[in-house]
Amino acid sequence: MQFVLVTGLSGSGKSVAMSVFEDIGFYCIDNMPPQLLLKFAEICKTGKIDRVAIAVDIRAGDMFSEILENTEQLKSAVTDLKVIYFEAGDEVLFKRFKETRRKHPLDGKFAGDLAGAIKYERGKLSSMREIADYCLDTTRFSNGDLRERLIEIFLEHPGDAMQIQVMSFGFKYGSAPEGDLVFDVRCLPNPFYIKELKPLTGLDEPIREFVLGFAQAQGLLERLKDLFDYLMPLYMREGKSRLVIAFGCTGGKHRSVVFAEETAKHLEANGYHVNKTHRDIKVKTI
Predict the structure, then answer these.
(1) Which ranges of the chain would DSSP assign to H, the alpha helix?
(2) CA angle 121, 32, 139 (to 5 degrees)
(3) In the chain, what are the domain boundaries?
(4) For the domain with range 2-155, which CATH number is right: 1.10.20.10, 3.40.50.150, 3.40.50.300, 3.30.460.80?
(5) pLDDT tens for each residue of 70-114
(6) What CA–CA distance (Å, rounded) separates 165 from 260?
(7) Which residues contact 242 (CB under 8 A, 6 or more apart)?
(8) What is the strand order of the sheet 163-170 is part of?
């Protein structure tokens, strides 16, 4: 079981980190009482949950005083436990609390004295910082920077951070509203009008050879590959966890299927996690 314990200063990026962990397939719990860590680890083993991220911090109040002891107990029960500690400079923390207009968890204890609350929190968390496997200072991090760093650390294959669905469809049966990127390939020669090709689909080699046998199809495909090579890292950095690329032709059986298949093949070869769907491929051709 891969178990990540997320802790650190309020305002240092833990909430963003938990969103990233959820996007990359971790079972996430925020603000768990430290005393429940060991019990929850046992539940995970029974329930076969193999990737867990839990945030534990000063919000636990008096219960947080036992965090170090609870973490040591957890280490004895979980072979792959990683503690990740987040921090940032005081000025940046002041700015973040001001921008979000949120109160520090210790606001009541320090009667609104943010500087005092941050100083106290640093002291209370110093023991966790010392035992952390990773200590990330997010002072100069954007959300995209933080996401990229966590993916780099916790994903064996960074391309898995974004789920890409490549689909084909036929415009005659409606557009693809779920598509983030929609391409119309009706500009290419149509095998529908060739008697022996009409019953086949883009999954059949004769259709693939026909569609890609034209220079304009080859030119379009190469330009699309270049576009995807440029766009995918940008989408991942921006934090997009799911992307739908849709190709449409008239009936959704021939040209769009070929381009969806070629695109999926290209993206998979570049290490991305891809699912393919052909929405209208089984619709009876009239």
Answers:
(1) 14-23, 37-46, 67-77, 90-100, 114-131, 143-154, 205-211, 215-238, 255-269
(2) 40
(3) 2-155, 161-278
(4) 3.40.50.300
(5) 998 888 888 889 999 999 999 999 999 998 888 999 999 999 999
(6) 10
(7) 162, 163, 164, 165
(8) 181-184, 242-249, 163-170, 273-278
Q: Are 79 and 44 in contact (CB under 8 A)?
A: no
What contacts 184, CB < 8 A, 6 or more positions away? 171, 248, 249
Distance CA 278, CA 177 (A): 15
Instruction: At 182, list the tokens.
Output: 């929609």
Give me the sheet containing 134-137, strands edge to edge: 27-30, 51-55, 2-8, 80-87, 134-137
pTM: 0.67
Helix/strand/coil for 173:
helix
117 close to 104: Cβ distance less than 8 angstroms = yes
DSSP 8-state assignment for residue 248: E
Q: pLDDT tier at 156 (50, 70, 90 boundaries)?
A: confident
DSSP category for residue 64: G
Query: Quick one: which of 149, 163, 156 has its CA closest to 237?
Result: 149
With CA atoms as reference, report the closest residue to 250 among 192, 178, 179: 192
Q: Is the Cα torsion angle 67, 69, 72, 78 positive or negative in sign?
A: negative
> Looking at this protein, which amino acid is placed at residue 233?
P
SS3 178: coil
- Which of 73, 72, 41 lies closest to 54, judged by CA? 41
CA angle at 89 for the pair 83 and 95, rounded to the nearest 5°: 115
Distance CA 208, CA 215 (A): 13
